[in-house]
Design brief:
The protein has 313 residues and is an all-alpha fold. It has a domain of 201 residues. Helix content is 73%, strand content 0%. Helix 7 runs antiparallel to helix 10. The termini are far apart. The model has no long low-confidence stretch (mean pLDDT 88).
Length: 313
């Protein structure tokens, strides 16, 4: 009988190999490529905000914005921006990154950078005002003009009703609707999530350009498409260079707040720094545009100098 103590030990080759547990699969939104994630995000938010929230608003006001329904429109717009634009964007950011503030690039504001950005936006507004005067002077075919004029008049009429206020309380509500909430919600979506994710794929400058174009198209205003795209690109470059979305929010707020303030105090639509009473001659409008363009470009050059160098070219 064999002594168990003398039994040969099993060879290492006979030992079973340890079974490795499969690596957990990454969540769906983290597996998507930046381009796929951005497309899915834009489609989803567009459906929620423009179609669902817009449809609810049309039902509430009976399909027409009048002085009798303007209060409902204002409150519905604020609530819609929060529930159907901001909340989905924050949720998608968390699903994508597992956190919110860091990927959206919330940082403490540098006072010098803020000053340069805000003055630059004021100059850019004047440049874009000059462009709009030029655009309106371009003749269009009569058949197309008969289609475009009623649409433009309807959009301007609705905007005028929304922005016209008769009390301080109304003014602050409109300011929240037009400037505060869009500055936060739209910047988080376009510069925070969309541009931030695209930077991982195509770099900062290109992502700012793409996000700016999408920002302009999203507003569904063909008459102001070029100015909205330009200002969206500028917001994107501000975030890319500074790494701070709060600067773009401040610039966005100022840009929109000026429109509310202008209607409240009765400033002419064609207001220019060199012609504050409106209706400027073409030569003065061109000079105003040129001077403000030089100021804007100089400020943006200085902004690039005082901000960090981009991580990606």
């Amino acid at each position: 009988m064999t002594d168990p103590a003398q039994a040969p030990a099993p060879s290492p080759e006979a030992s079973p190999a340890p079974v490795m547990a499969p690596a957990p699969r990454a969540p769906f939104f983290r597996r998507l490529s930046p381009v796929a994630f951005v497309i899915l995000t834009l489609i989803g938010v567009f459906i929620l905000y423009q179609i669902v929230a817009g449809g609810i608003l049309l039902v509430l006001v009976g399909g027409d914005i009048t002085t009798d329904t303007v209060g409902v429109v204002r409150w519905s717009t604020v609530i819609g921006q929060l529930l159907f634009l901001l909340v989905p964007t924050l949720l998608l950011t968390h699903l994508r990154y597992g956190k919110i503030l860091e990927p959206l690039r919330f940082r403490r504001i540098d006072p010098l950078q803020l000053l340069v950005v805000l003055v630059g936006i004021l100059a850019l507004q004047q440049v874009l005002q000059g462009y709009m005067m030029l655009q309106e002077s371009i003749p269009v075919p009569a058949a197309l003009e008969r289609i475009l004029i009623p649409i433009r008049q309807m959009m301007e009429s609705m905007l005028r009703i929304l922005l016209t206020v008769h009390s301080t309380g109304e003014f602050f509500l409109v300011l929240v609707m037009v400037a505060v909430v869009p500055a936060v919600a739209e910047e988080i979506l376009f510069r925070g999530l969309v541009q931030g994710d695209l930077e991982r794929s195509i770099g900062g400058w290109k992502s700012a350009l793409v996000a700016g174009v999408v920002f302009g198209v999203y507003h569904l205003n063909p008459f102001n498409l070029v100015p909205i795209v330009v200002i969206g690109i500028v917001f994107g470059l501000i975030v890319f260079r500074s790494g701070n979305i709060l600067l773009a929010m401040a610039a966005h707020f100022l840009n929109n707040a000026i429109a509310v303030l202008a209607v409240w105090i009765g400033v002419a639509d064609d207001f220019l720094f060199l012609a504050p009473q409106g209706a400027p001659p073409a030569s003065l409008a061109a000079m105003n545009t040129l001077v403000c363009a030089v100021v804007f470009l100089a400020l943006m050059w200085y902004f690039i100098r005082i901000t960090r160098r981009p991580v990606q070219a």
